[in-house]
Amino acid sequence: MPKYILAKYIPEYSGREITLKGWVYNIRKSGKIWFLIFRDGTEFVQCVVLKNEVSEAVFEMKSTLTQESSIAVTGVVQEAPRQETGYEILVKNIEVYHVAEEYPIALKEHGIEFLMDHRHLWLRSRGPYAVMKVRAELEQASRDFFNARDFTLVDSPMFTPNAAEGSTTLFETKYFDRKAYLTQSGQLYSEAAIMALNRTYCFGPCFRAEKSKTRRHLTEFWMVEPEMAFFDIHDDMDLAEEFVESLVKRVLGNCKRELQMLERDTAKLEGITRPFPRITYDEALEILHRKGFEVEWGEDFGAPHETAISEEFDKPVMIWRWPAATKAFYMKRDPEDERYVLGVDMIAPEGHGEIIGGSQREEDIDVLLRRIETEALSREDFEWFLDIRRYGSVPHAGFGLGLERTTGWMCGTRHIRECIPWPRTMVRLKP
RNA sequence: UCCGGAGUGGCUCAAUGGUAGAGCGGGUGGCUGUUAACCACUAGGUUGUAGGUUCGAAUCCUAUCUCCGGAGCCA
């Protein structure tokens, strides 16, 4: 018998005496019986304290233990069908590490500002706990997916010398006697890396200094970005679809308990199987016009448009073949019609927005040079990027998946600030 | 940056021009199967800030700060 066990394993010790180490989540007192809801970061377990089963000192802890006090509980694991886990602990002894001061977060409703100010404590609550577990599962599932398909992890730098896409606002920082910017994407570096390693992915934080105040935006977020040599836009979409399907499967398989805690309707996730609908921008525009939106050809879609399109499907929908003006300079033009680029966005169901943006990349140096010129980007900054097209250029493609948006979709979270441990937004830099 | 909304005990809210209340949390007591347990008692607020109108302002006006929701941009 180990010195102590993690709470998630108590079913394996049914009928035996074990010790748990963790924190008091809640206490419900009665006269000669009291209930201690225990948590240790692996599960929440009810512990029952009966007057005639423990010493008087332990029984009297009902009036000295406070919410979030740290303890070691020794007791017998017994079946309890009314518990979510099916088990509870009949307490024999409690040892106290620390009696917590009055805890700010009650087991009642709080406002989001208060909770985010106390994020360092809020993480202990059931909801954030479950979301963090799902997020971690998605990260691991992503790595497993690409590692199993001959991708090499090649992480990209956070400091960059220039504005990669020119359009979005970057955080500027001092870099000794120069300026540097925080990366908004690892893609350009991945394009170089695949010429060395064929298929790569990077997985790290990205930074956008845009003054976005919506439930879908953070200034610091995580993105997993695969990049593949010899892939065209269709191969790219095939992979994106297989990837997202695998993520849903992993979360459904490994995060049942977390989804239960979050009261997520898993039926909506169970239907997420290949193939996903693929429509072109023009087809999406028809849907919008049919639904009464006034969008001109060539305009990008806003959040209400995305939601309206996603409502037509019960799976993620891929919208591809976009008007060139709406997309970044590096996307490949459609050879059949120069007005379009071979880019794709994947929109998650239930209003969770765009979770993937990808494209086939422009491999022709002359076309790329023209676009750099048209968009008034600095050619000097992109010389290394152009080298990729000078030495054995090949068709290639890739995409980026936003981790927080995907986590939000899996968990049914309204706002993605709950899907990252320490959210950074326009108005929040603490804790 | 623009549009809309809100700031009242530790927290969540009520009080719409006339003596600032409730629930939760805290404290005290009660209860042997509770499920954000329950019951009783109790402490706790110069109503975001600065001006103004009024006999009288949480309430009306002006300014300002902060946050929330949405837009643009995007993952």
Q: Largest sheet, if any?
A: 9 strands, mixed
Instruction: Give me the CATH fold name of the largest domain.
Output: BirA Bifunctional Protein, domain 2
Q: How would you state the average pLDDT, rounded? A: 91
What would you call the structural class? alpha+beta
Number of DSSP helices? 13
CATH superfamily of the largest domain: Bira Bifunctional Protein, Domain 2
| Cα separation of the termini | 40 Å
Architecture of the largest domain in CATH? 2-Layer Sandwich
Query: Class of the largest domain, according to the CATH hierarchy?
Result: Alpha Beta
Counted beta strands: 17
Helix content: 25-40%
Low-confidence runs of at least 5 consecutive residues: none
The total domain count is 2
Judging from the principal axes of the Cα atoms, what is the shape? elongated
Order of helices and strands: EEEHEEHHHEEEEHEEHHHEHHEEEEHHEH
> How much strand content do the residues show?
25-35%
Radius of gyration: 26 Å
Write the layout of secondary structure elements.
Blueprint: E1 17-29, E2 33-39, E3 44-50, H1 56-59, E4 70-79, E5 87-98, H2 112-117, H3 119-122, H4 126-147, E6 152-153, E7 159-160, E8 172-175, E9 178-182, H5 187-197, E10 199-207, E11 220-229, H6 233-254, H7 256-261, H8 267-270, E12 278-280, H9 281-290, H10 303-310, E13 317-323, E14 333-334, E15 337-348, E16 353-360, H11 365-374, H12 383-390, E17 396-402, H13 403-411
Parallel strand pairs: 3-5, 6-10, 12-13
Antiparallel strand pairs: 1-2, 1-4, 2-3, 4-5, 7-9, 8-9, 10-11, 11-17, 13-15, 14-15, 15-16, 16-17
The structure holds one RNA strand of 75 nucleotides.
